[in-house]
UniProtKB/TrEMBL annotation:
Gene3D superfamilies in alphabetical order: 2.60.40.790
Domain of life: Bacteria
Chain ranges of the SHSP domain: 33-145
Family: Belongs to the small heat shock protein (HSP20) family.
PANTHER family in alphabetical order: HEAT-SHOCK PROTEIN 20 FAMILY MEMBER
Protein name, UniProt field: Heat-shock protein
Record-linked InterPro entries: A-crystallin/Hsp20_dom, HSP20-like_chaperone, Small_HSP
Amino acid sequence: MTLVKFNNGVRNNVNPFFNDVFDSIVNDSFLSDKLVSRVPAVNISENDSEFNIELAVPGVKKEDLKINLDKNVLSVSAEKKSDEGQEVKKYSKREYSYNSFVRSFTLPDSADYAKIDADYTDGILKLTIAKREEAKFQSREIAVK
């Protein structure tokens, strides 16, 4: 089976040789595999009481994930164990494989390092880091004298 490339019927006839060479370079599996990110995408958000980190790690088992805290650096890593008895597939394109990765995040001083929770659901790893009480925004009304 080969990968079918579509150009919606549009063909630039200025220099067909240039197009063929350019297409072969851009669509080369060696080059395109190197351009594909080998670390999971991440979303980082914050509210009044906590920081939230979400990593997209499809195809990774919960048992393969490791989360470590060293001083103020939170590291998420995974090493996918390969099964010896599995049949080796020949891929024409492979973009979502994470054999191993490491993502590290420097936590701010306002983070409560003792209150870090992790949840893995549907290929998304969600980390919740609580803020220290003194770092939480406190609102109050100030009387005018």
